[in-house]
Amino acid sequence: MLDVRRLRLLRDLANLGTIAAVAEAHTYTASAVSQQLAALQRQTGVALLEHTGRRVTLTPAGRELVAHTETVLAALEAAAAAVAAARAGLSGTIRLGAFPSAVRTMLPAALVALGRDNPGLDLMVTEIDPVAVPEALRTRRLDVALWHDYDVVPAPPDPALESVPLLDEAVYLAAPAALDAADADPVAAARHCDWILGTPGTLCHTVAVRVCEARGFAPRARHHVDDFDAALTLVAAGQGVTLVPLLGAGQPPPRVRLLPLATHRRTRIGYRRGAGDHPAVAACVDALRSIVESLESATPTVLA
């Protein structure tokens, strides 16, 4: 019988690319990961890994085993969900991840509702950039996550994860009031402006660059800021322009104009494949959807 923990390490190596990254994700030493993968190779009797220079890559047999591993892990998640559903009441720790604007707007009310209706749940929140969500769910550092992409930068499917839609938001160009936006395309009008971008490597940074490149120019980055409120304050101070989704716009400072774009941010509730019927996961989904429905009633323009 193949060891599930070793299979999970092989799967994570396929996704993360290096033994060092797998070790960090699981808080193991690199040596311990290598030893477990070597033991898995001995169990299977075939080569699962090969060395390419200083890197370790999966052989065709290794990739085939990873594909089966996803099915095995999903079945285990479904089995755990079935057992949890047979218990009376909900208990245990649920680790939720969310991006900053969701932590500020949607998550507090959802946590209150979850805690009120399920006092046995121990709810733990981690603020996380969407690009880090898949790894955090796969390696079990999170159980449920608010996970978004943009229509201009769609998230690739992940065989280890499932998700349900939650929210679709309009995106705006936040600009000083003095910006001449007579152009039908606000981004094109900001071609020669300084830009306030997210940290390179974050989804927000990628989106801004992609939106500008679609208009035939690269944004001239003056500042790198990941907090939307801080970015809007810099816009008000005449430090540049930035992109902001509706949830991140809040109450913009005076002298800041929000110019609507055709771009949208799409938020989903993500969890490991097979875990959707777990009562605690289902409770999180229901609470978040209820909060979004109330937000939409109060702010109909959330859905553009």
From TrEMBL:
Keywords: DNA-binding, Transcription, Transcription regulation
PROSITE patterns tied to this protein: HTH_LYSR
Domain HTH lysR-type: 2-59
Domain of life: Bacteria
Spans traversing the lipid bilayer: none
One Gene Ontology CC term in the entry: protein-DNA complex
A molecular function GO annotation: DNA-binding transcription factor activity
Family designation: Belongs to the LysR transcriptional regulatory family.
Protein's UniProt name: LysR family transcriptional regulator
